[in-house]
Amino acid sequence: MPITEKQKEMRINHLGGSDMAAILGVDPYRNAYDVYLEKTEQLKEGKVSDAAEAGNYLEDGVLNFAEARLGKLVRNQYRSAKERGIDCPIGVNCDAIIVEPNNGDAKKGEPVEAKTSQLYYYRGGEWGKEGTDEVPDRTILQCHAQMLCTGTETCHVPALVGGKGLVMYHVNIDEELKELLIVNSNDFWNNHVLKNIPPEDLVPSLPVIKRIKREPDTIIEIPQDIVSNWILSKEQLKAAEKNKKSAESLLLAALGTAEAGRCREGTVTYLETHRKGYEVKPSTYRTLRYKKEKK
Predict the structure, then answer these.
(1) Considering Cα of 57, then 60, then 63, then 68, what sign does the dihedral take?
(2) Can you spell out the DSSP letters for 110-136?
(3) How far apart are the C-alpha atoms of 19 and 15, rounded to whole Å?
(4) Residues near 275 by Cβ (< 8 Å), separated by ≥ 6?
(5) What is the DSSP secondary structure assignment for residue 212, as one 8-state letter?
(6) Can you give the residue ranges of every domain in the chain?
């Protein structure tokens, strides 16, 4: 379920499990620079992705499945490491915590991290055999952040996974990994967030940097080589698009009047595709352009 406004405010003052996955380089969607921009409040509110929106709608069902397997749950619970006397800035929003276990696999107070994955496309290999801890690396780190903040030794991961259905995983504590979270969270918070210094040797992901808050009517000096590299990249892309169109024309000419053609390594098809029309809603967006100075 979506977090509350109060929980959003808490997130600014703490590093969550998904933040730690990004900081440690195991999140394919975010990196440490993205987390830095968020925690220093330099970003505008972002659009929720289709996958995340679907996850929000489906989370209740996944937790109902977990409740049937594990016992009674209390949902949407915030916990922090400092509440347990641990000196680090990690704080987590647990999807649920077990309050009345109904089997030997579950204990009171253990966190539950509900997941939906591969609903739109199948990647394979990320989710292993049910009942194990064979889950994505970023989920392992999220679970350890929750165990750190709840003082438990197991985090349960009920998941709705494309190609697998509803499955249950269990991640047990690894003390070395827990210590790694403590050390790296303090380093990131003290040396980057509090000092307002971005991580070195990283650039923000494009969807995140587009959300940065801009000051109207401001202009600064930037290195020419960065601009030149961007222009060169655009020119190379334009040349590649031109080559693609030429190659496509040559291929269609080779097909003649046929809808398909065989070659040594496969088959090429050129079939009709039908799609429904739609109306584009009004929107506001920024466009990156370059105008060369006149001499």
Answers:
(1) negative
(2) -EE--EEESSSS---SSS-STTSS---
(3) 6
(4) none
(5) B
(6) 5-209, 224-269
Q: What is 5-209's CATH topology?
A: Lambda Exonuclease; Chain A (3.90.320)
φ/ψ of 272, rounded to 5, equals -70, 140
Give pLDDT tens digits for 41-73.
Answer: 999 887 777 777 887 888 999 999 999 999 999
pLDDT mean values, one per 10 residues, the chain (295 residues): 54 87 93 95 82 83 96 96 96 96 92 90 80 95 97 96 93 96 97 94 89 90 93 95 94 92 90 71 63 65
Task: Give the separation between CA 62 and CA 138, rounded to whole angstroms.
Answer: 19
Q: Six-digit token pair at 1? A: 């379920």
Question: CB burial class (10 A; 0-12, 13-18, 19+) of residue 15?
Answer: buried
pLDDT tens-digit series, residues 81-91: 999 999 999 99
Those residues with Cβ within 8 angstroms of residue 79's Cβ, 6 or more apart along the chain or in another chain: 91, 92, 94, 111, 146, 149, 150
Q: For the stretch 127-140, what's the b/e string if a residue is b when 16 or more beta carbons lie within 10 angstroms of its beta carbon?
A: beeeeebebbebbb
Structure-token match 């987590």, residue found: 92
* 24 vs 189: CA distance, rounded Å: 13
- Specify the length of the chain in residues: 295
